[in-house]
């Protein structure tokens, strides 16, 4: 399986607003589960549905964005809880990449280890992209991690993401487990030099 | 160059550099709870991997447990299923588990410290963003996602990028009725909910040094609300005394203390940024909006949108719509429906003592539902020993069993409809307390008690 995420293309789905927290992305009551399967239908649940179950005005309900796979957001997206349920629910809804002005750190980290690029762009570029997609939801949007650029229609702008996430996504090594386990001896050597691991370890009672 | 605690601990725990450019960091203590772990254990099973250091891994249940009756099976079938999953996973992997049949069960960030598991100089990880709480002991502690829980389980390490370090110094003395909760709400209000992104926060200064461990934990707890994944306080005698004699604390305290002292920030350590606050200017704080940065002193009014920086206006407008509050409205006097004292921010014994001090001899206002939820069974026992439960119930508060309760909507304690809740928890996000239209105002536990007995937001200093 090719795990590289160097290029991601498709169409956009804008969700406007700063400081959209993970409780809004996936309300806690839907986290009563032992697998991530099925979380897709609860993405943005309370923003999409009124208490009587009727649909509200939200781009995740909007037919025009039904095929959208690239989420476009504003500032500090994904703040709040560390729940991986948030990117998992977005991913299972069909989101494969996120473009935003800024992201909360744990959210961005969770995206990275799931192989979902979360790239940053300037406020101006994000606004233009949002408006462009709102005007024509079928416009092609493509993220190129090698070039660190987003293209949509005939436009192009620069994006950034932490170097480590970029490398891992391009090389397909974003699933960290194997990489961490490869250093078995070094892990043991580190443990052996940490005072509380050797001198006064926690005793299991 | 002299080093700060953060960089000393980071260096000590670095296994090496990964091809991604990140550091591989050894994790000394891994705490596990029922919500973010089942999928991680499932991944272990799928990949046929074992837990590398089960003796450094400790599990408990907090988020889903009911706090009124804890008999099994739970009425909620989904919660029962999650309960069974963590019992089975802990058992299969030989992990110490503080479940409902343990006297040590409680909120993960309350029990780690009180059992002496949390110690200075450690790296600590947990699939929960408020893991920053443990930084109060001079540890580097951070919240992680479920895939990272898997990584820690199998390798006892994480792939991490080193953040910068900002020292936040609180100098001077806090006034009467002003608590550490007010300090952190003020910090977040000034530096912003994303001001800490990319930073670890070191809290220092004379006001911090004067605090007990419980108060220090409340501050570090909410680092994450300020955008900083890590918050810590240098260990000192207060820390060492707190740990001495706890079940999992080192037996050889002299040796441990020597290490702990060596790991503290050097006097003239370097920081990437320094911010100073004057403790005398900090008032009891109340949030009026939908993120923890939207907070003002209790004697103040809500802000006028036109007076806010551009990038805060949209969220403020949304906050006013959701909260049904007006611009320039005094926060004192806003009526409440529910009062919640609990959560990993403020459910420790000193929090309950401060709240009981306000509740003593008073009555919860008519029409207000008030609950007190100790953070752990140990806190529960201690409070009963001191007669605090009696003070609360005499005043008309409900006295509950340990758990996360109304901090979030994963157990039966939830807001109904548009209820407005004075809460000692850490998040006022829309929908956080269980009702999509419910409203949360964050404040110190003493302020919650004051709101409960007055039926409205009240300056606790008037009742002391
Ligand atoms: S008390 Fe609240 S914030 Fe703390 S761990 Fe429980 S749910 Fe999370």
Summarize the structure in words.
- The complex is a heterodimer of chains A (205) and B (464).
- In chain A, 33% of the residues lie in helices and 15% in strands.
- Chain A is of the alpha/beta class and 205 residues long.
- Chain A has a single domain (7-197), classed as Alpha-Beta Barrel (Aconitase, domain 4).
- A seven-stranded mixed beta sheet of chain A has the order 4-3-2-1-5-6-7.
- In chain A, a hairpin with a 4-residue loop joins strand 5 (140-144) and strand 6 (149-152).
- The N and C termini of chain A lie far apart (45 Å).
- Chain B has 15 helices and 19 strands.
- Chain B has helices spanning 5-13, 38-47, 77-92, 108-114, 146-155, 180-191, 206-209, 213-221, 237-243, 253-263, 310-323, 349-359, 377-385, 388-395, 445-454; strands at residues 14-17, 23-26, 29-32, 57-60, 96-98, 123-126, 140-143, 157-160, 164-171, 199-204, 230-232, 273-278, 285-287, 295-297, 338-341, 369-372, 398-399, 420-423, 439-442.
- In chain B, strands 5-4-3-6-7 form a five-stranded parallel beta sheet, with helices on one face. Chain B has a five-stranded parallel beta sheet with strand order 17-16-15-18-19, with helices on one face.
- In chain B, helix 12 (349-359) links the parallel strand 15 and strand 16.
- In chain B, helix 6 (180-191) packs parallel to helix 8 and helix 12 (349-359) runs parallel beside helix 15.
- The longest helix of chain B has 16 residues, at 77-92.
- The termini of chain B are far apart.
- The model of chain B has no long low-confidence stretch (mean pLDDT 97).
- At the A-B interface, helix 3, helix 4, helix 6, helix 7 and helix 8 of A face strand 1, helix 2, helix 3, helix 5 and strand 8 of B.
- Iron/sulfur cluster (SF4) binds at residues 62-63, 107, 109, 128, 130, 343-344, 404, 407-408, 425-426 of chain B.
Q: How are the SSEs ordered, and which strands pair?
A:
The complex is a heterodimer of chains A (205) and B (464).
Chain A: E1 7-14, H1 22-25, H2 45-48, E2 70-72, H3 85-93, E3 97-100, H4 105-113, E4 118-120, H5 123-135, E5 140-144, E6 149-152, E7 155-158, H6 163-171, H7 176-181, H8 184-193, H9 195-198
Parallel strand pairs in A: 1-2, 2-3, 3-4
Antiparallel strand pairs in A: 1-5, 5-6, 6-7
Chain B: H1 5-13, E1 14-17, E2 23-26, E3 29-32, H2 38-47, E4 57-60, H3 77-92, E5 96-98, H4 108-114, E6 123-126, E7 140-143, H5 146-155, E8 157-160, E9 164-171, H6 180-191, E10 199-204, H7 206-209, H8 213-221, E11 230-232, H9 237-243, H10 253-263, E12 273-278, E13 285-287, E14 295-297, H11 310-323, E15 338-341, H12 349-359, E16 369-372, H13 377-385, H14 388-395, E17 398-399, E18 420-423, E19 439-442, H15 445-454
Parallel strand pairs in B: 3-4, 3-6, 4-5, 6-7, 9-10, 9-12, 10-11, 15-16, 15-18, 16-17, 18-19
Antiparallel strand pairs in B: 1-2, 2-8, 13-14
Iron/sulfur cluster is lined by residues 62-63, 107, 109, 128, 130, 343-344, 404, 407-408, 425-426 of chain B.
